[in-house]
Specification:
By secondary structure, the chain is α/β, with parallel strands linked by helices. It contains eleven helices and twelve strands. The two termini are about 25 Å apart.
Protein backbone atom coordinates (compact mmCIF):
# COMPACT_ATOMS: atom_id res chain seq x y z
CA UNK A 1 0.00 0.00 0.00
CA UNK A 2 1.67 3.23 -1.18
CA UNK A 3 0.46 6.49 0.39
CA UNK A 4 1.53 10.07 -0.33
CA UNK A 5 1.18 12.51 2.56
CA UNK A 6 0.84 16.29 2.20
CA UNK A 7 1.54 18.74 5.06
CA UNK A 8 1.19 22.52 4.89
CA UNK A 9 -0.52 23.72 8.06
CA UNK A 10 1.89 26.61 8.72
CA UNK A 11 5.12 27.89 7.15
CA UNK A 12 6.44 24.46 6.16
CA UNK A 13 5.34 22.54 3.09
CA UNK A 14 6.13 18.83 3.13
CA UNK A 15 5.37 15.77 1.03
CA UNK A 16 6.25 12.24 2.10
CA UNK A 17 5.71 8.75 0.73
CA UNK A 18 5.40 5.41 2.51
CA UNK A 19 4.94 1.84 1.38
CA UNK A 20 3.49 0.30 4.52
CA UNK A 21 6.16 0.82 7.18
CA UNK A 22 8.81 1.62 4.58
CA UNK A 23 9.84 5.27 4.10
CA UNK A 24 10.26 6.15 0.42
CA UNK A 25 10.60 9.95 0.54
CA UNK A 26 10.36 12.91 2.92
CA UNK A 27 10.88 16.31 1.26
CA UNK A 28 10.17 19.77 2.66
CA UNK A 29 10.33 23.46 1.79
CA UNK A 30 10.03 26.30 4.31
CA UNK A 31 8.80 29.86 3.97
CA UNK A 32 11.34 32.00 5.87
CA UNK A 33 10.45 35.64 6.60
CA UNK A 34 13.09 38.39 7.02
CA UNK A 35 14.85 38.90 10.35
CA UNK A 36 12.69 40.81 12.81
CA UNK A 37 9.44 39.74 11.21
CA UNK A 38 6.99 36.94 11.79
CA UNK A 39 5.61 35.05 8.83
CA UNK A 40 2.58 36.54 7.13
CA UNK A 41 -0.30 34.21 6.36
CA UNK A 42 -0.84 35.39 2.78
CA UNK A 43 2.87 35.12 1.99
CA UNK A 44 3.14 31.64 3.54
CA UNK A 45 0.12 30.47 1.55
CA UNK A 46 1.57 32.00 -1.64
CA UNK A 47 4.83 30.14 -0.92
CA UNK A 48 2.97 26.84 -0.66
CA UNK A 49 0.99 27.53 -3.82
CA UNK A 50 4.14 28.33 -5.78
CA UNK A 51 6.26 25.47 -4.43
CA UNK A 52 3.85 22.54 -4.24
CA UNK A 53 3.95 21.35 -7.86
CA UNK A 54 7.74 21.32 -7.99
CA UNK A 55 7.99 19.62 -4.60
CA UNK A 56 5.42 17.02 -5.68
CA UNK A 57 7.42 16.19 -8.81
CA UNK A 58 10.69 15.90 -6.85
CA UNK A 59 8.99 13.64 -4.30
CA UNK A 60 7.72 11.29 -7.00
CA UNK A 61 11.20 11.21 -8.52
CA UNK A 62 12.93 10.45 -5.22
CA UNK A 63 10.43 7.78 -4.18
CA UNK A 64 10.62 6.13 -7.62
CA UNK A 65 6.87 5.59 -7.80
CA UNK A 66 4.20 6.21 -10.42
CA UNK A 67 0.76 7.60 -9.68
CA UNK A 68 -0.91 4.40 -10.89
CA UNK A 69 0.72 2.62 -7.94
CA UNK A 70 -0.59 5.03 -5.27
CA UNK A 71 -3.39 3.69 -3.06
CA UNK A 72 -4.26 6.80 -1.00
CA UNK A 73 -3.47 10.49 -0.56
CA UNK A 74 -3.19 11.72 3.02
CA UNK A 75 -3.44 15.42 3.82
CA UNK A 76 -3.46 17.65 6.88
CA UNK A 77 -7.09 18.43 7.71
CA UNK A 78 -6.10 20.64 10.67
CA UNK A 79 -5.37 22.23 13.00
CA UNK A 80 -3.38 24.99 11.40
CA UNK A 81 -3.57 28.25 9.49
CA UNK A 82 -6.72 28.23 7.40
CA UNK A 83 -5.34 29.60 4.14
CA UNK A 84 -2.29 27.36 4.22
CA UNK A 85 -4.41 24.29 4.94
CA UNK A 86 -6.77 25.19 2.09
CA UNK A 87 -3.98 25.59 -0.49
CA UNK A 88 -2.66 22.10 0.20
CA UNK A 89 -6.12 20.51 0.46
CA UNK A 90 -7.10 22.01 -2.91
CA UNK A 91 -3.98 20.58 -4.55
CA UNK A 92 -4.72 17.15 -3.03
CA UNK A 93 -8.29 17.34 -4.30
CA UNK A 94 -7.04 18.09 -7.83
CA UNK A 95 -4.61 15.16 -7.72
CA UNK A 96 -7.34 12.91 -6.31
CA UNK A 97 -9.80 13.85 -9.07
CA UNK A 98 -7.16 13.54 -11.77
CA UNK A 99 -5.95 10.07 -10.83
CA UNK A 100 -9.03 8.70 -9.05
CA UNK A 101 -7.20 8.18 -5.74
CA UNK A 102 -9.18 8.38 -2.45
CA UNK A 103 -8.04 10.81 0.24
CA UNK A 104 -7.50 10.45 4.00
CA UNK A 105 -7.87 13.52 6.27
CA UNK A 106 -5.22 13.45 9.01
CA UNK A 107 -5.05 15.38 12.28
CA UNK A 108 -1.76 17.29 12.36
CA UNK A 109 -1.17 16.80 16.10
CA UNK A 110 -1.91 13.08 16.03
CA UNK A 111 0.45 12.71 13.05
CA UNK A 112 3.30 14.20 15.12
CA UNK A 113 2.60 11.64 17.83
CA UNK A 114 2.44 8.67 15.46
CA UNK A 115 5.62 9.72 13.66
CA UNK A 116 7.41 10.01 17.00
CA UNK A 117 6.18 6.60 18.14
CA UNK A 118 7.22 5.03 14.84
CA UNK A 119 10.75 6.50 14.77
CA UNK A 120 11.60 6.04 18.46
CA UNK A 121 9.73 2.75 19.05
CA UNK A 122 8.23 4.18 22.26
CA UNK A 123 5.40 1.86 23.35
CA UNK A 124 2.83 3.89 25.27
CA UNK A 125 4.49 7.16 26.31
CA UNK A 126 3.22 10.35 27.86
CA UNK A 127 3.57 12.83 25.00
CA UNK A 128 4.89 16.38 25.28
CA UNK A 129 3.78 18.01 22.05
CA UNK A 130 5.43 21.41 21.53
CA UNK A 131 5.34 23.48 18.35
CA UNK A 132 4.71 26.96 16.98
CA UNK A 133 0.95 26.65 17.33
CA UNK A 134 0.45 23.87 19.89
CA UNK A 135 1.57 22.99 23.40
CA UNK A 136 -0.06 19.92 24.94
CA UNK A 137 0.66 17.08 27.37
CA UNK A 138 -1.08 14.00 26.03
CA UNK A 139 -1.64 10.37 26.91
CA UNK A 140 -3.51 7.56 25.15
CA UNK A 141 -6.49 5.98 26.86
CA UNK A 142 -9.65 4.18 25.73
CA UNK A 143 -9.39 4.81 22.02
CA UNK A 144 -8.33 8.47 22.05
CA UNK A 145 -5.39 10.72 22.80
CA UNK A 146 -6.38 12.55 25.98
CA UNK A 147 -5.05 16.04 26.72
CA UNK A 148 -3.89 16.25 30.33
CA UNK A 149 -2.66 19.82 30.07
CA UNK A 150 -2.02 22.55 27.53
CA UNK A 151 -1.17 26.20 27.10
CA UNK A 152 -3.82 28.63 28.27
CA UNK A 153 -2.72 31.32 25.81
CA UNK A 154 0.16 31.14 23.32
CA UNK A 155 2.17 28.07 22.31
CA UNK A 156 5.80 27.72 23.37
CA UNK A 157 6.93 27.90 19.73
CA UNK A 158 5.06 31.16 19.31
CA UNK A 159 6.83 32.54 22.39
CA UNK A 160 10.22 31.63 20.90
CA UNK A 161 9.26 33.17 17.55
CA UNK A 162 8.27 36.41 19.29
CA UNK A 163 11.50 36.44 21.29
CA UNK A 164 13.51 36.07 18.07
CA UNK A 165 11.56 38.94 16.55
CA UNK A 166 12.17 41.21 19.55
CA UNK A 167 15.91 40.42 19.61
CA UNK A 168 16.23 40.44 15.80
CA UNK A 169 17.47 36.87 15.73
CA UNK A 170 17.42 35.43 12.16
CA UNK A 171 14.55 33.15 11.10
CA UNK A 172 16.81 30.97 8.96
CA UNK A 173 16.86 27.99 9.38
CA UNK A 174 14.37 28.65 12.21
CA UNK A 175 14.02 31.08 15.13
CA UNK A 176 13.97 28.22 17.65
CA UNK A 177 17.22 26.72 16.36
CA UNK A 178 19.03 30.05 16.50
CA UNK A 179 17.73 30.70 20.02
CA UNK A 180 19.00 27.27 21.05
CA UNK A 181 22.50 28.08 19.77
CA UNK A 182 22.56 31.45 21.52
CA UNK A 183 21.30 29.89 24.76
CA UNK A 184 24.43 27.71 24.88
CA UNK A 185 26.45 30.92 25.33
CA UNK A 186 24.25 32.29 28.10
CA UNK A 187 25.86 32.68 31.54
CA UNK A 188 23.45 34.78 33.61
CA UNK A 189 19.95 33.63 34.48
CA UNK A 190 17.29 36.34 34.27
CA UNK A 191 14.37 35.50 36.57
CA UNK A 192 11.17 35.20 34.54
CA UNK A 193 7.51 34.58 35.45
CA UNK A 194 6.88 30.88 36.08
CA UNK A 195 3.22 30.23 35.41
CA UNK A 196 1.99 26.65 35.92
CA UNK A 197 -1.69 26.31 36.73
CA UNK A 198 -2.52 22.75 37.65
CA UNK A 199 -1.79 20.77 34.50
CA UNK A 200 -1.76 23.84 32.25
CA UNK A 201 0.90 26.43 31.44
CA UNK A 202 0.81 30.10 30.47
CA UNK A 203 3.47 31.89 28.44
CA UNK A 204 1.92 35.31 27.77
CA UNK A 205 3.28 36.72 31.05
CA UNK A 206 6.80 35.75 30.06
CA UNK A 207 6.36 37.44 26.70
CA UNK A 208 5.08 40.65 28.33
CA UNK A 209 8.02 40.62 30.76
CA UNK A 210 10.52 40.13 27.94
CA UNK A 211 9.00 42.91 25.84
CA UNK A 212 9.25 45.39 28.73
CA UNK A 213 12.75 44.19 29.64
CA UNK A 214 14.03 44.69 26.10
CA UNK A 215 12.38 48.10 25.78
CA UNK A 216 13.93 49.29 29.03
CA UNK A 217 17.40 48.01 28.09
CA UNK A 218 17.30 49.75 24.71
CA UNK A 219 20.45 48.49 22.98
CA UNK A 220 20.80 44.75 23.54
CA UNK A 221 24.30 43.27 23.37
CA UNK A 222 25.02 39.77 22.09
CA UNK A 223 25.86 38.76 25.65
CA UNK A 224 22.46 39.90 26.92
CA UNK A 225 20.74 38.18 23.98
CA UNK A 226 22.44 34.93 24.96
CA UNK A 227 21.44 35.36 28.61
CA UNK A 228 17.80 35.97 27.66
CA UNK A 229 17.69 32.96 25.34
CA UNK A 230 19.24 30.80 28.05
CA UNK A 231 16.80 32.09 30.68
CA UNK A 232 13.75 31.58 28.48
CA UNK A 233 14.72 28.02 27.63
CA UNK A 234 15.44 27.05 31.23
CA UNK A 235 12.19 28.57 32.48
CA UNK A 236 9.69 27.38 29.88
CA UNK A 237 11.23 23.94 29.52
CA UNK A 238 11.11 23.47 33.31
CA UNK A 239 7.41 24.36 33.22
CA UNK A 240 6.77 21.84 30.46
CA UNK A 241 8.73 19.05 32.13
CA UNK A 242 6.93 19.70 35.42
CA UNK A 243 3.45 19.19 33.98
CA UNK A 244 4.69 16.23 31.93
CA UNK A 245 6.01 14.54 35.06
CA UNK A 246 2.69 15.12 36.80
CA UNK A 247 0.90 13.46 33.87
CA UNK A 248 3.29 10.50 34.05
CA UNK A 249 2.56 10.14 37.76
CA UNK A 250 -1.19 10.23 37.14
CA UNK A 251 -1.08 7.55 34.46
CA UNK A 252 1.74 5.38 35.78
CA UNK A 253 3.68 5.95 32.56
CA UNK A 254 7.43 5.24 32.44
CA UNK A 255 8.08 6.87 29.06
CA UNK A 256 7.99 10.42 27.76
CA UNK A 257 8.02 11.25 24.07
CA UNK A 258 8.81 14.81 22.91
CA UNK A 259 7.33 15.71 19.51
CA UNK A 260 6.68 18.82 17.43
CA UNK A 261 9.00 21.45 15.98
CA UNK A 262 10.20 22.71 19.37
CA UNK A 263 10.86 19.06 20.26
CA UNK A 264 14.04 19.29 18.16
CA UNK A 265 15.63 21.36 20.94
CA UNK A 266 18.41 19.30 22.52
CA UNK A 267 18.08 21.03 25.90
CA UNK A 268 14.38 20.17 26.12
CA UNK A 269 15.10 16.58 25.09
CA UNK A 270 17.80 16.37 27.75
CA UNK A 271 15.56 17.78 30.51
CA UNK A 272 12.65 15.49 29.62
CA UNK A 273 14.88 12.40 29.42
CA UNK A 274 16.58 13.25 32.73
CA UNK A 275 13.20 13.58 34.45
CA UNK A 276 12.03 10.23 33.06
CA UNK A 277 15.26 8.48 34.07
CA UNK A 278 14.96 9.81 37.63
CA UNK A 279 11.55 8.13 37.72
CA UNK A 280 13.06 4.86 36.49
CA UNK A 281 11.77 5.43 32.97
CA UNK A 282 13.07 6.60 29.63
CA UNK A 283 12.83 9.66 27.40
CA UNK A 284 12.32 9.51 23.62
CA UNK A 285 12.77 12.13 20.90
CA UNK A 286 13.57 12.37 17.20
CA UNK A 287 15.70 14.63 15.03
CA UNK A 288 14.49 17.53 12.88
CA UNK A 289 13.59 15.30 9.92
CA UNK A 290 10.70 13.91 11.92
CA UNK A 291 10.06 16.57 14.62
CA UNK A 292 9.54 19.52 12.27
CA UNK A 293 6.31 19.49 10.23
CA UNK A 294 6.68 17.00 7.39
CA UNK A 295 4.61 15.08 4.85
CA UNK A 296 5.96 11.74 6.01
CA UNK A 297 4.07 11.94 9.30
CA UNK A 298 0.84 12.52 7.37
CA UNK A 299 1.49 9.57 5.05
CA UNK A 300 2.41 7.28 7.96
CA UNK A 301 -0.69 8.20 9.99
CA UNK A 302 -2.93 7.82 6.94
CA UNK A 303 -1.47 4.32 6.50
CA UNK A 304 -2.30 3.50 10.14
CA UNK A 305 -5.84 4.82 9.72
CA UNK A 306 -6.52 2.83 6.56
CA UNK A 307 -4.89 -0.31 7.95
CA UNK A 308 -7.24 -0.22 10.94
CA UNK A 309 -10.38 0.13 8.85
CA UNK A 310 -10.77 3.83 8.04
CA UNK A 311 -13.01 4.22 4.96
CA UNK A 312 -11.42 6.91 2.77
CA UNK A 313 -13.61 9.31 0.81
CA UNK A 314 -13.05 9.59 -2.93
CA UNK A 315 -12.27 13.31 -3.21
CA UNK A 316 -13.55 15.05 -0.06
CA UNK A 317 -10.89 17.48 1.22
CA UNK A 318 -12.24 19.51 4.13
CA UNK A 319 -10.11 21.38 6.66
CA UNK A 320 -10.63 22.78 10.15
CA UNK A 321 -8.35 25.23 11.94
CA UNK A 322 -9.50 23.84 15.30
CA UNK A 323 -9.26 20.10 14.78
CA UNK A 324 -8.62 18.95 18.35
CA UNK A 325 -6.22 16.13 19.17
CA UNK A 326 -8.75 14.50 21.50
CA UNK A 327 -11.50 14.48 18.88
CA UNK A 328 -9.78 11.76 16.84
CA UNK A 329 -10.74 8.12 17.29
CA UNK A 330 -7.34 6.41 17.28
CA UNK A 331 -8.70 3.07 16.07
CA UNK A 332 -5.26 1.85 15.05
CA UNK A 333 -4.03 1.78 18.67
CA UNK A 334 -6.45 -1.02 19.58
CA UNK A 335 -5.60 -2.67 16.28
CA UNK A 336 -1.89 -2.58 17.24
CA UNK A 337 -2.64 -4.18 20.62
CA UNK A 338 -4.63 -6.97 18.97
CA UNK A 339 -1.87 -7.48 16.39
CA UNK A 340 0.76 -7.75 19.16
CA UNK A 341 -1.36 -10.32 20.99
CA UNK A 342 -1.73 -12.38 17.81
CA UNK A 343 2.05 -12.33 17.30
CA UNK A 344 2.56 -13.68 20.84
CA UNK A 345 0.22 -16.59 20.06
Amino acid sequence: MIIIGFEGSANKLGIGVVRGREILANLRETYVPPTGEGFKITEAAAHHQKAIIGLFKRTLHESKIEMKDVSYLGYTAGPGIGLCLQIVALFVKIVSETYGIPVVPVNHCVAHIEMGRFITKAENPTILYVSGGNTQVITYRAGRYRIFGETLDIAVGNLLDRLARELRIPNDPSPGYNIEQLAKKGKRYVALPYSVKGMDVSFSGILSFLTRYIEEKGEISEEVKADLCYSVQETVFAMLVEVSERAMACTGSSEILVVGGVGCNKRLQEMAASMAEQRGGRGFSADERYCVDNGLMIAHTAWKMVSSGYAAFATRCEVSQRYRTDSVEATWREFEIEEAEREKI
